[in-house]
Amino acid sequence: MERRWYSFTDDTRAKVRGSSAGRQDASHEPQEELEESDPRVQEFLGPQWARAAYQEFVVDSPEEFVRIAARVNVSPRTAWRGQADASWALTTELERDRDETVIREIGLHTYESRILTEARRRAHHHYADCPQPDDLLGWLAFLRHEGAPTRLLDVTWSPFVAAFFATSVEHDARDGAVWMFSQFHLSNGLHTALIKTEKPFFGDGAFGVVLDGYQPPTPERNTPESRAVSRHDILSGDPLLLLALATRGMLAVHAVMLVEPGRWMSRRHDVQQGAFLVPLNLRSGSERNLAETIGHPMAQPSDREVGPFPRDEKHISTVVGNAAVIKLRVLAAAKSKLRSLLEKMNVRASVLFPDHHGFVMELRSLLPPKGTWPPG
């Protein structure tokens, strides 16, 4: 087990000594190194449960959600994601409901490449506003916007936009979930994953060859060979390079990137303050990539009950400072009241979807779903 030492500043050491021995004047004493197991260090760091990289809490009222959002949504930024059913996993449309053979042996990047190729060839027949041919992130964002399967997982910089999706009327009888992702911790975790992966590239023959009816288009011209990508290039953390390698099925690194739309952005992405989580290695699934990034399983320890978000300021600071991912379980009983609050804040379908889709969504919401009448 790695031994850690903690060195306190004069001011902090004086407070620690003063609280335990009744003395406050210790600023000129020699500096003392303390092990992590020392009770004074434990008091300084906060309880063990509050230092976990993954946390789950229960939200039972709109007021509780607003309290948490106000306390957590500070710099550095937090990305949010709402899901109407708390039991749903964090999976992308590309990997959802696919055969294991396709995911682990053939590789989803094979089909992702086909989707991108055909979109670039033919999308201009159907859409006036298409990304530039070389804008890979733009094409993935465009396809995600139009409902095509991609490796992008939608997130938002607004807790209330996330709450809108978590309180969907169609799943009113189920607990919803609002996920929080720390930009700071995900960035650090990505860098750590890149450093720790000894062999960041898949070798030749890592994936099977697909023999089916798909006929790729004939290249318009011979493209010059790209220079070899080195481990140093990987460690630079260039998101566009990592994305290009990931979509070609070359990266063996389990990690996620948090990225914003680039040159191409839809009106919907803009209004929803949208961003994306991007898993780099779909061979093992999005949640495995996220777990490797934060260094913690995507679940609470079985011996710890999921309870309310802490109210003690010290515990709050410890949780916010250490958690890379927080899952808020929005109880079904709180959904309708939270929806009413969002309506008053003008967070509603016709605003978040500024097109005919949002209009139809609002019309649909006027019809009460089964099990919600009489209101109680």
Overall description:
The protein has 376 residues and is α+β, with helices and mostly antiparallel strands. It has one domain. The chain contains 16 helices and ten strands. The chain has helices at residues 10-21, 39-45, 62-72, 100-106, 108-122, 136-145, 159-166, 183-196, 231-235, 239-247, 267-271, 286-294, 313-322, 332-344, 349-352, 356-365, and strands at residues 5-7, 33-35, 54-59, 78-83, 153-156, 176-182, 256-259, 274-279, 307-308, 325-330. Helix 7 packs across helix 14 (332-344). Mean pLDDT is 86; it is low at 18-24.
Q: Taking Cα atoms only, what radius of gyration do you get, to the nearest Å?
A: 24 Å
Helix/strand class: alpha+beta
| Tally of structural domains | 1
Q: Sheet with the most strands?
A: 5 strands, mixed
As residue ranges, the low-confidence spans are 18-24
Number of strands: 10
Amino- and carboxy-terminal Cα gap: 54 Å
Strand order of the largest sheet: 4-6-10-3-9
Roughly what fraction of the amino acids lie in strands? 5-15%
What best-fitting shape do the alpha-carbon axes yield?
A: globular
Give me the oligomer status: single chain
**Average residue pLDDT:** 86
As a percent range, the share of helical residues equals 25-40%
Topology pattern, helix = H, strand = E: EHEHEHEHHHEHEHHHEHEHEHEHHH
Number of DSSP helical runs: 16
